[in-house]
Amino acid sequence: MLNVETNAEIGNRYDQWAEQVLAGEPISRENALEILRSPDEDVLALLAAGFRIRRKHFGKTVQLYFLMSAKSGLCPEDCHYCSQSKISTAPVPKHNILKRDDLMDAARMASERGAKTYCLVISARGPNEREMAAVETIVPEIKQKYGLDICACLGLLSREQADRLKACGVDRVNHNLNTSEDHYAEICTTHTYADRVQTLRHVRDAGMEMCSGGIIGMGEKHEDVVSMAFDLQELGVQSIPLNFLNAIEGTPMQGNADLSPQDCLRALAMFRFVNPTRELRISGGREIHLRSLQPLGLYVANSLFVGDYLTTKGQAPQADYDMIADLGFDITTKMGE
């Protein structure tokens, strides 16, 4: 006779892992892999268990982020997923860092949309002196006028550059690991995984918070996703954006990302179990891959980008507000833990 688990037994297994995590005992890599390999019919039980962890640390709050592409295209790196890379033929805007008025207009829009954090992003290997000076000038003005937290995403940073960002008022720096160390050479050859880790260490040592996550759907194995989640945990990253590959035509990864909504939900749940106290953000590609199941992601994640991404459109802000309200959740203006 087949030994088929009942719904109660399935739920009990994930609840036991949640109890373990809530008691301060980390989940194992083996159990994290089990989450990614769990069947679709387990997803609701998995999310219910993950919600217990999310609720303890974040209640029913959702923090909104606003993304601003301050410099677009013109990047010398060959990141295979990126429409702004030197090897991409995707028709994206190409411009140097925007002027003050444009950056301030975007900050106003971020404030009006209920975002707490304004993400200032440039496409580059790392910032040049002109770009550093522009950021140092605009950040204090944005913070003074709109009270927004600032997350800067400027590419690879030296320790001296990280110190300058801290001094001008930047709260966080985003620099995604993107995938595992083992898989990294498959998605980029112009810099290494170690380069990215070093930038995060410079950010941490300068006294800023680290924002770092990744992208799933780039041909990686489940082991790669688990490895990335644990590397982020070991680095002590405070905020984790999880993207789902938008396989943009004109990039080497066009046609990739065979992800189901359940795949995305399993990944979000696994990241919550591995990083229980860290802000977890549903990021690029959610509209494409989660589709009508987007609300379920917020049972384990606790933040969203509101509006558009760097070179692709996002869901209309009102749809996000309605989704959050329908869940009975509240938009928070408190910086993530």
UniProtKB/TrEMBL annotation:
Cofactor field: [2Fe-2S] cluster; [4Fe-4S] cluster
SMART domains: BATS, Elp3
Keyword Iron-sulfur: yes
Domain of life: Bacteria
Ranges for domain Radical SAM core: 60-286
HAMAP family from the UniProt entry: BioB
Protein name, as recorded: Biotin synthase
